[in-house]
Amino acid sequence: MALVYEISKSVLPVVTITLNEGDVVYSESGGMSWMSGNVEMKTHSGGGLGKMLKRKLSGESLFITDYSVKGNTGTVAFASEFPGRIVDLQLGVGESIIVQKDGFMCAEKSVDLDMHVSKKLGTGFFGGEGFIMQRITGPGVVFLEFDGDIVEKDLEKGEELRVDAGHVAMFQPSVKYDVRMVKGVSNVLFGGEGLFLATLRGPGKIWLQTMPMSKLAGKVIPFLPLKRD
Q1: How many structural domains is the chain composed of?
Q2: CATH number of domain containing 22
Q3: DSSP 14-72
Q4: Cα–Cα distance between 85 and 45 in angstroms, integer?
């Protein structure tokens, strides 16, 4: 039976999942927003020490929590932590998606969450948080949260798109991801885009987020009051 859920259409969206007997969804510990009284929680390591460390490095908590019901129907809700979008994906058996660090929200129990490390040398040195990402593999439904709105693009084979790394939300594994230095002295000194840009090369689908938390923080920090002794 297909998982039943509803994603609210708001600036701060929430996904409400209806659980029938036999349905199990999980999130990082502390990820749940509210649930009906008959929903049962079970918090555990999710696969041992190795899995725990991988989740931590990819932006999640050490422990995960399963949610299920017995006998009756129940609901559990997960709210976005930041103004943006919740994206739902139905992954087939063995189908994977590469997601930005901390993009995972919740998923059916059959979905596997793992760490993805870029093998490109440039990405490792200059990609910052983009160096470590999340690999999510089906089968099952997964819910992801991103900052701002989402723009989807289908890249043809060999087609490239250069992106500020903070805008990369997720992409299919067939897409090649690297970080390259901006060309031209004037661009480096006066371009205002930083020294490096992410390069995404098709074929495959990519999802871009319009308001990365890192950029928002950069705009807000100058207006914060200075701490005085």
Answers
A1: 1
A2: 3.60.160.10
A3: EEEEEEPTT--EEEETT---EE-TT-EEEEE-SSSHHHHHHHHHTTS-S-EEEEE-SSS
A4: 28
Q: At which residue do the structure tokens 């129990």 appear?
A: 109
Query: For residues 62 and 54, what is the distance between their CA atoms, to the nearest angstrom?
Result: 9
**Cα–Cα distance between 171 and 42 in angstroms, integer?**
31
Amino acid identity of residue 26, one-letter, is: Y
Among 207, 187, 205, 208, smallest CA distance to 196 is for 187
| Residue showing tokens 């927003």 | 33
Task: Check: CB of residue 90 under 8 Å from CB of residue 47.
Answer: no
Tell me: pLDDT of 185 over 80.
no
Residues pairing with 200 in the sheet: 161, 177
pLDDT at 44: 86
Q: Which of 111, 132, 131 lies closest to 55 in space, CA to CA? A: 132
Count Cβ atoms within 10 A of the Cβ of residue 80 and give its class: 0-12 exposed, 13-18 middle, 19 or more buried: buried
- Give per-residue pLDDT as tens, 98-133: 999 889 999 999 999 988 887 654 444 444 444 688
For residue 211, give both structure tokens: 């308001």
Flag whether 225 is in a domain.
no
Q: Is the pLDDT of residue 162 over 70?
A: yes
What global pTM score does this model have? 0.83
Q: By residue range, what is the domain housing residue 140?
A: 4-216
